[in-house]
Amino acid sequence: MASTRFRFPCADARHLPRHLPRHLPRRRPVVLGLVAAALVACGERAPELTPGTGQFRGAEVAALRPKPTFTLRDTDGRPYDFARETAGAVTLLFFGYTHCPDICPVHLANIGAVLKRLDPADRQRIRVVFVTTDPDRDSAAVIRRWLDNFDPAFVGLRGSLDEVNAIQAQLRLPPAAVTTNAKGQVEVSHAAVVLAFDAEGLWRLSYPFGTRQDDWAHDLPLLVRGRWRAAGPAAARDASGGETMFVGKLRFDDARVPVLRGTAALAAYATIRNSGADDWLLGVEAPGLARTAMLHGQSRSVLGQATMTMLDSLPLPSGGTLALAPGGQHVMLEGLMREPDPGDRVPLVFRFRLAGRVSVPARAVPPDAAQGSLR
Amino acid sequence: MNGIQMNGIQWWCAARGDAWTWTWTPYPGVWLAVAVAALVTWRLRGFGPGDSTPTEPWWRRVAAWAAVVLLWVTLDWPAGALGAGYLASVHAAQYLSLAMLVPSLALLGVPTGAWERLARRPALVRGLAVATQPFRAMLAFTIVMVFSHQPWLVDTLMATPAGSFALDASWLASGLVFWWGLCAPVPARPTFAPLLKLSYVFAGTVAHVFIGMWMLIADYPIFATYELAPPIGTMTARADQQWAGGVFLLVGSPLVLVVMTLIFFRWIGTGEEPTG
After folding, report:
1. Are residues A47 and A116 in the same domain?
2. How far is B142 from chain A (nearest CA, A)?
3. Which stretches in chain B have pLDDT values below 70?
4. Are residues A308 and A257 in the same domain?
5. CA distance A366 to A360
6. Which of A140, A194, B73, B186 would be A207's cystine partner, CB 3.0–4.6 Å?
C-alpha cells in the first residue's frame, strides 16, 4: 500500500511561507495563530501564544505548559519515561511517521543537520524525541533505521495510537488518525509542529513546517542557555470560535458550506485576508467530505446567464483579501462522500503556494445563511 | 498569473511541494517552447549554405539539433521538475545548459545562408549590434546570472510556473545575447579581437565561480525551495547544494575554459591581431 501525505485538519502546521528565506524572523507573527487556531478547530481552547519577544524565531508559548508525562517503548524496546529521561535537557518533541514523504523528514533532517554543526557542549544538552503516529507500520526497527538517517542520537518512541493520542491530548494537540482512502492508500494525519521544551521542562516554543536550518541554528543555542526575555504585555492571539481563524499571516473569516439536500455538489465560501507576502490559492481539499474540490469563478453574460469556469489558482496579494462568495469565486465540492448537517464542522484544506496547506474548519450552514445557493 | 493549469497539470515546471515520484508528468508549455525551437531550427536549415560557402560543415547541423534536444531535456520532465522544486544541483545544471550550452549551440548551428540573409537587412543588424554590444551583453549576462541566483528571487519565482518560466527565459535570453558576440558573424565586429574575446568570456562568466563557491561553503541551505522540498533519497539539502556548487565549478568552469581555449587556438591559427 502506498502512503500518501495527509495533514490532520486541525493540526496542519504547514502554514509558513515555504519559499522565502529567513521567513521566521521576518514573519514571526506568522506562527502565532497556528496552534491556537488548530486547537480551537478541535473544540478545545488553545494555549495562548505571544507574538514573541524578538529573541526567538519559533513561536513562543505564553501560557507555559509542563512536559507531558508518559512512558512509551523506545527503539530498543525499553520503556522510556519521557519526563525523566529528558529531565534537564532542552527537548524537541515531534509526532510524525516514517512513511511521511515531506514534513517529517524535512523537520528531522533540518534539526539533525544543525545539531551536527552545533557546539558539542550545547549538542549534549538537547534531546530530540520522535513519537510515531503510525504504530502499525512503524516498528521499532523501522523507526530506528529511519531516525539514523538524520541522527543516531534521536530517540524514537512507539506506543498504541490511543497512547499517543492521550499524550497529544495532554498537550492539547489534536489526535492523530490513520485511515485508508478509496485507493487503498494509507493516510496518516498528525500535527506538523515540533514542540520545544526548555531545560526546566516547560513548553516554550513551537516550530511549524517551514522552519529552516538557519532558524534552528539561531534558536537552539538560546534554548540551551535558557536566555528568556520577559514577554511583552498581553499580546496573546487566539482564534475565536472557528468563525475567524488566524493561521500565520492568513485570516479566515466565515468559512462555511451551505448544505443543500439532495445535490451532488456543494459550494464552500470564506474570506481570506493576507497580511504576509504575495501568495496564491492553488486548490482546496475537503477530506472526508468530497472527493474533489475545485476553484470556480462565476460570471454573468450580458443576457444575465451565469457561467462557471474552473480556475487553476487565485491570487492573494500581500495585504489583499480573497472573497470566496456566492455569485463569485468559490470552492465547488463534488463527489460528496457524506451530507453534512447544519452545525457540523467541515474540514477544508486550503493549499497555498507559499503558506502551504492550511486546514480550516468550515461551518455547515443552511442554504439561506449563505446568501445564495448553487441552484 | 499563475499559469494555465488543467486538472493539476502545470504548463511549466515549478515547485509543487508534493513528494517526488517518477511518474511522468506533462508540461505543455515546455513542449510548445521546444516545438517552436525545432520549427525555427528546421526553417533556418532551409537556408542552407551561403553564397560564400558552397557546402555547410556537418557540425552546424549537429549543433543546431543538439541545441533543440538539450533545450527539451533541460526543461521537460524529469530534469525540469527536479530542478524547479526538488534539487538545487539539477537547477544549477539547468542554468549551465540554458545560459551557456543551448544558446551557443543554437547560434553555431545557424547556417551561413541564414547569416548572409540576415546581413542583408541593415535595420535588423543595427538593432542586433546594439543589443549584443559586447560590454552591454557581458553586463546583462552577469546581472542575470547573479540576480537569478539570489535566494529570495529563486524562492519566489520557482513557486509558480510563470515565475519559473521567467527564470528559464531570462537565462536563455541572456545566454543568446552573451554568446551572440562570439558565435554569430552578424553584425560583424572587426574590433572585437581575440584578446578582447578572451577577456569578454572570462569577465562575463567569472561570477559563476563565486556563486558556486557560495553554494559549496555555505553553512546552511541557501534556497528555501530546495531545503523544504520533500527529500529525494537520503541526500541532505546541504549536500544537494554542495553538488550545485560543484556543478558550477566542475562543469561550468571547464566549459568556460574550453571556450577560451578554442578562441585562443583559433586566434593562433588565423594569425589575427590580438587587439583588433
Report:
1. yes
2. 23
3. 1-8, 48, 50-53, 271-276
4. yes
5. 19
6. A194
* Mutation choice for B interface testing from A3, A151, A312 by most B CBs within 10 A: A312
Residue A240, in any domain of the structure: no
Domain boundary (A178, A210, A225) is at: A225
Residues of A in contact with B159 (CB under 8 A): 18-19, 280, 353-354
Domain hosting residue A40, numbered range: 3-225
Say whether the peptide bond before residue B187 is cis (omega within 30 degrees of 0).
yes
CATH code at position A346 = 2.60.40.1890
State how far the Cα of A62 lies from the Cα of B194, in Å rounded to an integer: 68
Residue A280 lies in a domain: yes
CB A281 within 8 A of CB A313: yes
On whether both A218 and A266 belong to a single domain, the answer is no
State the Rg of chain B over Cα: 20
A219 plus A285 within the same structural domain: no
Which whole number is the average pLDDT over A239-252?
60
User: Looking at this protein, which amino acid is placed at residue A353?
Assistant: R
A:74-93 residues touching chain B, CB 8 A cutoff: none
Question: Cβ of B217 under 8 Å from any chain A Cβ?
Answer: no
Question: Any chain A CB within 8 A of the CB of B228?
Answer: yes
Predicted local confidence at residue B34, as pLDDT:
98
Q: Do B231 and A20 touch (CB under 8 A)?
A: no
Residue linked to cell 464542522: A345
Whether A95 and A196 map to the same domain: the answer is yes
Asked if residue A9 has a cis previous peptide bond (ω within 30° of 0), the answer is no
The interface pTM score, or ipTM, of the predicted complex is 0.86
Q: For residue range A257-283, what is the model confidence (pLDDT) as tens digits? A: 898 877 788 999 999 988 777 888 988
**Segment (H or E) for A360:** strand A356-365
For residue A255, give the nearest of A347, A150, A338 by alpha carbon.
A347
Q: Are residues A200 and A280 in the same domain?
A: no
Q: Which CATH number belongs to the domain containing residue A180 in this structure? A: 3.40.30.10
Does residue A271 share a domain with residue A190?
no
Question: For residue A93, what pLDDT band results from cuts at 50, 70 and 90?
Answer: very high
Quick one: A214 and A328 in the same domain? Answer: no
3-state per-residue secondary structure call for chain B = CCCCEECCEECCCCCCCCCCCCCCCCCHHHHHHHHHHHHHHHHHHCCCCCCCCCCCCHHHHHHHHHHHHHHHHHHCCCHHHHHHHCCHHHHHHHHHHHHHHHHHHHHHCCCHHHHHHHHCCHHHHHHHHHHCCHHHHHHHHHHHHHHCCCHHHHHHHCCCHHHHHHHHHHHHHHHHHHHHHHHCCCCCCCCCCHHHHHHHHHHHHCHHHHHHHHHHHCCCCCCHHHHCCCCCCCCCHHHHHHHHHHHHHHHHHHHHHHHHHHHHHHHHHHCCCCCC
* A295 closest CA partner among A257, A275, A267, A261: A267
Q: What distance in Å separates the CA atoms of residue A239 and residue A96, rounded to the nearest whole number?
A: 25
Within 8 A of B214 by CB-CB distance, chain A residues are: none
Specify the number of domains making up chain A: 2
Rounded CA-CA distance B208/B253 in Å is 8
Residue A231 in any domain: the answer is: no
Provide, as residue numbers in chain A, all residues whose Cβ is less than 8 Å from the Cβ of B17: 18, 102, 356
Which spans in chain A are helix H? 23-26, 32-41, 82-85, 103-117, 120-123, 140-148, 161-170, 213-225
